[in-house]
Design brief:
mainly alpha, 58% helix, 167 residues, two-stranded antiparallel ribbon
C-alpha cells in the first residue's frame, strides 16, 4: 500500500480494469477524426496519442513488467521508458482502440492470476523512481494511470472544435 493508492484487493483492481475496458472506448466513440487529432496546445497530446500512450503502458509496462516481477515471464525491453513523443495522430482511432482492448483483456487475465503473495514481491527497478517497488504498488497504480489519461482525453476532446459538418 502506498499513500497514493489504497490497499485495494486484487478483486477490486480487476473490477476497475474491467469497467475501464468498457468505459475508455466510450470516451472516443462517435468522434470525428478532426476531434481525435486535435491538439489543445502544440506540446499536448491529441486524443489518439493518449490512446497510443495507454497501449504502450498496457503492453510495455503493466502486462510485461508485472509477470517479470513475479517470475512468470522474463520481460524483454521493459526498461524502455514510454515515449513522450507520440506518432498516432494519423492512425485510425478504431484500430488503436482495438489494440488497447486486446492488451487490456490480456491484462485482466494477468490480474486475475495474481495472488496476495505476488503483490508483495519487489523489484530493484522502480518505474516511478526510488529504491524498490512492489508488484502491489505497480498493480494498484494501473487503474489510476488509466483514469488520469481518461480525464486528460476528456479535456482534450472538450477543447476540440466541433467537426466541420456540425459547424
Amino acid at each position: 500500500m502506498t499513500a497514493d493508492h489504497p490497499a485495494d484487493t486484487i478483486a477490486d483492481v480487476v473490477r476497475r480494469l474491467e469497467v475501464q475496458l468498457v468505459r475508455i472506448p466510450e470516451v472516443f466513440a462517435d468522434r470525428s477524426d478532426e476531434e481525435l487529432s486535435h491538439h489543445a496546445a502544440p506540446d499536448e497530446w491529441c486524443a489518439k496519442q493518449i490512446i497510443g500512450h495507454l497501449i504502450e503502458a498496457e503492453g510495455e509496462v503493466f502486462t510485461m513488467l508485472i509477470p517479470g516481477m513475479v517470475g512468470r515471464d522474463a520481460p524483454e525491453g521493459w526498461q524502455n521508458v514510454p515515449s513522450m513523443v507520440r506518432e498516432e495522430c494519423g492512425a485510425d482511432a478504431e484500430a488503436l482502440l482495438t489494440q488497447w482492448r486486446a492488451l487490456r483483456e490480456r491484462g485482466i487475465a494477468l490480474a486475475r492470476s495474481l495472488n496476495d503473495e505476488d503483490l508483495l514481491r519487489t523489484s530493484e527497478h522502480n518505474w516511478h523512481g526510488g529504491a524498490t517497488e512492489t508488484v502491489g504498488d505497480l498493480f494498484r497504480h494501473w487503474p489510476f494511470h488509466t483514469d488520469a489519461h481518461e480525464s486528460q482525453a476528456l479535456e482534450v476532446l472538450r477543447a476540440a472544435p466541433p467537426p466541420a459538418a456540425a459547424r
